[in-house]
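User: quick one, sequence for these tokens?
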């Protein structure tokens, strides 16, 4: 059964380039983080991706994962953000 407490939303935004999805998903796989859902598009040359992930079996704590993703984003010249799914939902409730 899926534990919503261990779900997070990852957003990636920046200029489109080869390898963004590959590098982000490779990092997640290496940390034993499962991609539950993924959506990506190109809007006026900007790459936009949202992922729902399950980090219940992650090898690191969520704060470390978040920092790693920020650093990965910097290396790719994109912005990567991670929010717990409950926090994300509360922020986007209408």
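Assistant:
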């Amino acid at each position: 059964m899926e534990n919503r407490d261990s779900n997070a939303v990852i957003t990636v935004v920046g200029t489109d380039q080869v390898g963004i999805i590959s590098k982000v998903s490779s990092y997640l796989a290496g940390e034993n983080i499962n991609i539950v859902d993924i959506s990506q598009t190109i809007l006026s040359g900007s790459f936009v991706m949202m992922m729902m992930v399950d980090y219940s079996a992650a090898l690191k704590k969520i704060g470390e994962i978040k920092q790693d993703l920020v650093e990965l984003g910097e290396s790719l010249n994109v912005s990567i953000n991670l929010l717990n799914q409950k926090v994300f939902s509360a922020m986007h409730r209408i």
